[in-house]
Specification:
- The chain has one domain: Alpha-Beta Complex (Nucleoside Triphosphate Pyrophosphohydrolase), CATH 3.90.79.10.
- Strand 1 and strand 2 form a beta hairpin.
- It is of the alpha+beta class.
- Strands 1, 2, 3, 4, 5, 6 and 7 form a 7-stranded mixed β-sheet that branches.
- It is built from 4 helices and 7 strands, in the order βββαβββαααβ.
Length: 174
């Protein structure tokens, strides 16, 4: 539990995999949070976010990544403190599992309730009022940003910045 009035940084990973000729993204249901999220969690004291996200993926879903092969794609800064008074930055990374990658997802049952490989296009196109995959606007924007060639994914991310939320958003241009 964070100390009051401190910054709590986090790191999450967009894990992509081709399944039946479609790009899918790994989403997890954390036992302590609403909706589906990307695997990840808190950055420990004196730990780099890149190392934290690799550690968290191994702990939560049993997938191993090389910290040198993942890409930072965006960051959000929580500007409204949580109930403990904490604010912080979340770093979002992306990794792609090759077809030859046979490692299976192995959940930590204390943290993660379930997982799903969701087709990226389905997430991008789903109606906010009728969601097959219960995700936030941010999750959808990040998937679009990471999978869209050209400016439209980036523009979606920049549009997200103008929504009345308690986070400030920075998208990294591809």
């Amino acid at each position: 539990m964070p100390e009051p009035y401190t910054a709590t940084n986090a790191a999450r990973m967009l894990v992509f995999k081709e399944i039946q000729n479609k790009i899918n993204v790994l989403l997890v249901k954390d036992r302590h949070k609403e909706g589906l999220l990307f695997p990840g969690g808190a950055v420990d004291k004196n730990e780099l976010p890149r190392i934290a996200v690799v550690r968290e993926c191994a702990e939560e879903v049993g997938l191993e990544f090389d910290a040198n092969t993942i890409s930072l794609i965006a960051m959000t800064a929580k500007i409204k403190a949580n109930r403990f008074g904490a604010t912080g930055i979340t770093h979002y990374y992306a990794a792609y599992l090759e077809k030859k990658h046979t490692e299976k997802v192995k959940l930590d049952p204390l943290e993660i309730e379930k997982y799903v490989w969701a087709p990226a296009q389905d997430l991008i196109e789903q109606d906010a009022n009728n969601q097959k995959y219960p995700v936030s606007v941010l999750v959808t924007a990040l998937v679009k940003h990471a999978t869209t060639k050209g400016a439209s994914g980036y523009q979606e991310m920049m549009d997200y910045r103008n929504k009345p939320m308690d986070v400030e958003f920075v998208a990294l241009q591809k």
